[in-house]
Automatic annotation (TrEMBL):
Record-annotated Gfo/Idh/MocA-like oxidoreductase N-terminal domain positions: 5-116
Record's protein name: Gfo/Idh/MocA-like oxidoreductase N-terminal domain-containing protein
InterPro entries, sorted: Gfo/Idh/MocA-like_OxRdtase_N (IPR000683), Gfo/Idh/MocA_oxidrdct_glycsds (IPR050463), Gfo/Idh/MocA_OxRdtase_bact_C (IPR043906), NAD(P)-bd_dom_sf (IPR036291)
PANTHER family linked: BCDNA.GH03377, NADH-DEPENDENT DEHYDROGENASE-RELATED
Chain ranges of the Gfo/Idh/MocA-like oxidoreductase bacterial type C-terminal domain: 132-232
A single MF term (Gene Ontology): nucleotide binding
Pfam families linked to this entry: GFO_IDH_MocA (PF01408), GFO_IDH_MocA_C2 (PF19051)
Amino acid sequence: TGGKGRVDTGEIAKHKHVQVLGLCDVDRERGQVDTWLKRFTSAKFYQDYREMLAALDDKIDVVSISTPDHTHYPATMAAMERGKHVYTQKPLTHKLAETRHLAKVAAEKKLTTQMGIQNQSREAYRLTRHYIKEGILGKISKIYVWSFKNWGYDGKPYTDKSSIPESLDWNLWLGAAPVRPFVNKVYHPGQWRKILDFGCGTLGDMGIHIFDTPFKSLDLSEPLWVEAECRAPNGFGHAEQNKVHYGFASTKYTTDDFTFTWWDGEGA
């Protein structure tokens, strides 16, 4: 119910046929749970999504998941195993194999699923696709995409530890990730994207938005090769100051020497 979960819950609840019966957040204070419970008087609060799914199994149809990346897969899979339709925020999972497994289970159980990526609904996205598909821009020879955000960390691994806030269940926040001490304002709230065990870095988090339009507009498929430049990685956080070149097979919308380049971090 915190962060993106706050936005998604509010938007979903606007639909006249939706009734919110369960709210879940590992941090009751950060998630502003008491405020939500005043708004959704039929809802009950849980800190553990597994307990929520078990308690409401015969009462709910759909589960919305807006958690840190490393918990997308286990939470989504737990809901689908109970036959629930799911709306899960991007990036869909922390690892590619997890994405493939979710797709397999969704197909087997014939569930309706959607990944949250708001660019798909924006007018600029649809106009760009139209301009390219109709040949208004001609054949595309170069794509440059970037984000000035720096969700990487190439410093020394954190060795400090802080007292855990009373409102937070740190063990539940970690989920299936390796156990480590809580460090205030380092992992939670909102800093987990830069850490390898929890997030997908700038490329994984913002690239999914920014790649989406050219990728689908140009009918691109898997890259033939990838070449990356960055500051020296440390095995703890995602690399900083990335520049990544992708080689794609040409399509009817591109020139034969088409190139695709990504930058992130300060100065991108």
